[in-house]
């Protein structure tokens, strides 16, 4: 693998980063002890295993470096001094936190993961880190993965990270081991494009620019100059991070979907809206006059593109109906709004800000990133994203994967990001928040579970 220019959207994520707003994705993977201790890995063995498998993933050996052309651009280069030990570390919990009794281990692991998510990745190295948390005395352990958003979107991050699991690594060995992909030889041809190619490129560029202009106009119309809203979601940044998790019953979510129509994602978005409403009222906050807006990312990857480099994203804007007291009407409002978004498509509307970013030159991202980051608050209040995971059971060193909680970065002006994944018959919810603005984040996580229970009770009563 040689050099690879950062695409405009990747470059935007790279330059949006600041000390108070690191732009890395995360995942907290929780593992149970091996069923047979004689054949399961301990924490030190897991550390070594992670190092060996991560070092075999070519993309994790790449770092970002500025280039002369295009002006303001950057590219991925192989780090000739790559040392996997600089990226993988063990973090110990106290004995009480390591015992999985009464939530002790999970409470300690999530608290520590939140603190570790505060720290930006070192930019002179390949931008990723893994931490092994816990694993004392044969107890459960967790692996926190941090991966810069410039390197991957959610689907790409899953494709990269899957290589650490026993089942994926074994499949690689069965195919003859992990190898660096090499480009297929291309027959010699003239570097001069033919007339048809020139016409095709010109038409494609005109279409792209027209689409970007439409997105930009939609963003201007949707932007809010009055930034009043829910106090917790509009608080100024403290640079701290807090993590909370929730586990929702997937079968209950699917029963609600079958009764209400729409998609599973519609139900989960309505659960987020209901949880926010419950949480705000319990805090004694007045519900905002205008429903908070969620930015809901949409993958633009086609089937078979999971391994493709870079970010392939767009998004929808969705008003979360926290002002509606009826849970069923909230769900119906979300479903109708998402149907409207999907009918328009992911390449239109103010939510398609990533599509606009993909049309800007490198120099614009380098110097315009701070302005764009500060403008995010004018467009949306909270990020709500779904990350697909493999359906098959996974393990690491013979230790079964129990749960994976995804984590999304916080944009400037946002205090909360919500990420959801499905694994093991549960919807795993990862809540990342500004630690000062949302010190009661655990309560918001519990509100999500309560919202599912109320919707399910309404289904049963119908």
Give an overview in words.
By secondary structure, this protein is α+β, with helices and mostly antiparallel strands. The chain folds into two domains: 171 residues, Chloramphenicol acetyltransferase-like domain (Chloramphenicol Acetyltransferase); 247 residues, Nonribosomal peptide synthetase, condensation domain (Chloramphenicol Acetyltransferase, 2-Layer Sandwich), CATH 3.30.559.30. Helix 9 packs across helix 13. It is globular.
The CATH homologous superfamily of the largest domain corresponds to: Nonribosomal peptide synthetase, condensation domain
**What's the mean pLDDT score?**
81
Give the amount of beta strand, in percent.
15-25%
Helix and strand pattern: EHEHEEEHHEEHHHEHHEEHHHEEEEEH
Shape: globular
The CATH class label of the largest domain is Alpha Beta
> What's the number of extended β-strand segments?
15
Biggest sheet: strand arrangement: 5-6-7-2-13-12
Give me the Rg, rounded: 23 Å
The helical percent reads 25-40%
Total tally of structural domains:
2
| Alpha-beta classification | alpha+beta
> What's the story with the biggest beta sheet?
6 strands, mixed
The low-pLDDT segments are: 177-211
CATH topology of the largest domain: Chloramphenicol Acetyltransferase
Number of helices: 13
- N- and C-termini, Cα separation: 58 Å
The CATH architecture of the largest domain comes to 2-Layer Sandwich
